[in-house]
Write a structure and sequence with these properties.
The protein is mainly alpha-helical. It folds into 2 domains: 31 residues; 39 residues. Helix content is 93%, strand content 0%. The chain is built from 2 helices and no strands. It is flat. The chain starts with a helix and ends with a helix.
Length: 71
Amino acid sequence: LSALEQEVLDEYTRLLNNMDQLSASIASLATSPTSQILDSLRELERKTGLVFTLLKASVYSIVLQQQLEDE
């Protein structure tokens, strides 16, 4: 095999491993109760909302600080 052919085969091997991991994750999600998935999504939504709020506060603080420095 040439070096290029070996690289292609290695990439296909990595792709196969990634697809196997994805398949296992999907199978795990498919067997989980819907209520458990919804609870996990609600928790994720709360955490995302908190991060967004903190980000907005940080941006507001930076903008306010720059305005005060400009004055």
